[in-house]
Amino acid sequence: MSTVPRTIRIHPDDNVAVVVNDGGLPTGTTLPGGPTLVQAVPQGHKVALNDLPAGTPVRRYNVVIGHTAVDIPAGGWVNGQRLVMPEARSFENLPAPQPPADLSPLDGHSFRGYRNADGSVGTRNLLAVTTTVQCVSGVLEFAVERIKKELLPLYPNVDGVVGLTHSYGCGVAIDAPDAVIPIRTVRNLATNPNFGGEVMVLSLGCEKLQPERLLPPGSIPISDEHQGPDIVCLQDEKHIGFMSMIDSILTQAKSHLERLNARQRETCPVSELVVGVQCGGSDAFSGVTANPAVGFATDLLVRAGATVMFSENTEVRDAVDQLTRRAATQAVADAIVHELAWYDAYLARGQADRSANTTPGNKKGGLSNIVEKAMGSIVKSGNGPIHGVIGPGEKVKKKGLIFAATPASDFICGTLQLAAGMNLHVFTTGRGTPYGLAECPVIKVATRNDLARRWHDLMDINAGRIASGEASIEELGWELFHRMLAVASGEKTWAERWGLHNDLVLFNPAPVT
Ligand code: CA
């Protein structure tokens, strides 16, 4: 392994650079064309490229990520404790939209997907069972195990069965204004393209979120030969004993499985992909390697006509001026500000401060504060204009680059992107997380060679090769793009091979009772 000291400076005007070498660099290391380290600097952390007296603006991504709290000499370690974080950018006087020109079209690529009656396309062929309330989760889990063991072997073309369980449905202020968010999330989850338009509902009976409130007439497409969602209600008087409930679920599942099993993959244009991009367990490399590679692939997807959603409110908040400038129209800029201002108010209600986002792992990985994290996070959105905005739990209806406003929490963001109609997920991580979803394939991208080496059977793509000079952002971006088409066509991700997935987590900003 090379012992040549390597650092990355993103922008020529930056006065800090990030240490690339595994294990960091020791005191006395002279950086190529730079200062000599006056102290050891860990991997992913920042080194001062010149003297930074207290109060000096520290620039990374050519953005001020803070001011030095103490004198830091050239070759010194710049970290969160030695920085004063700037205030959040106000929503006043934001730049008007000056969107970049639409990216040139990209033709000649396709994938093999399952076309649905409503026009959407699945990348997996799954039976999903929607639930109205948490009370039925245990029963559903029991039934799902039986379906897996007894029915799935009879329907080999079906990829799996998923219980859409959650903690909502009762004991909640269901008429509070913000209750619209969890309700529409559960509703829109039921029609994710990977479920083939087959909607099956398990209800308790006495819950606040009644099936007809969850799925009112017209909320789900119903084909001629198939009338409405199949509902099993546990409190229905016809059920005598637990096995009667289980038998009802299995009987209904059979008819859905039959239709799903008859489906075949067909060649589909890339424009049918609805990709959600996300990061979690981030480090200082996230914004240097994996996220820029994702951004490059985002541009390729948008050029090919696909829908790409970027999210994570608290990780784009400090870049709001970049977002309004990139908005395709004033209406899109206004919608971005509306969502972020609503989220600011939500956080203020809970008295969350601005340092609430960055985790101990983020800081250990070299991310000093949320401003630095945000600048590295937003590059996942590529370079094109922002074409649309959706609120949490809403279905995306437009093609192009979409800001899907969600919390940054990995599971909540993933759940909301699924509700929006995501059929493929790309997830970057620097610290490492085994994150996966049962509802949709998740391609995980490692930011560092060291993580990719240790987690070789969990990470699908190694973007650390960008930092070590083995691959360019462009090369990695194309590799990711081709992998996305392969996975969309059925190739399994590591998480799928191991069967790893996280629970759905709803975003409920309304009170519970
Ligand atoms: Ca996240």
Strand content: 15-25%
Summed up, the helix count is 15
Main beta sheet: 7 strands, parallel
Could you say which overall geometry the principal axes of the C-alpha atoms support?
Answer: globular
Ligands, ions, cofactors: calcium ion
Unreliable stretches (pLDDT < 50, length at least 5) are none
Structural class designation: alpha/beta
Fraction of residues in H or I helices: 25-40%
Mean pLDDT across all amino acids: 94
- Lateral strand order in the biggest sheet: 17-18-16-15-19-20-21
Please compute the radius of gyration using only Cα atoms: 24 Å
C-alpha end-to-end distance: 58 Å
Secondary-structure topology with pairs:
Blueprint: E1 7-8, E2 16-19, E3 46-48, E4 57-60, E5 63-68, E6 77-78, E7 83-84, E8 110-115, E9 121-122, E10 126-131, H1 137-151, E11 160-164, H2 180-190, E12 200-203, H3 211-214, E13 230-233, H4 242-261, E14 266-269, E15 274-279, H5 290-303, E16 307-310, H6 313-316, H7 320-326, H8 330-349, H9 360-364, H10 370-377, E17 388-390, E18 400-404, H11 410-420, E19 424-429, E20 442-446, H12 449-454, E21 461-462, H13 464-467, H14 473-488, H15 494-498
Parallel strand pairs: 10-11, 10-12, 12-13, 15-16, 15-19, 16-18, 17-18, 19-20, 20-21
Antiparallel strand pairs: 1-2, 2-3, 3-6, 4-5, 5-7, 8-9, 8-14
Helix pairs in contact: 1-4, 2-11, 5-14, 7-8
The structure holds calcium ion (CA).
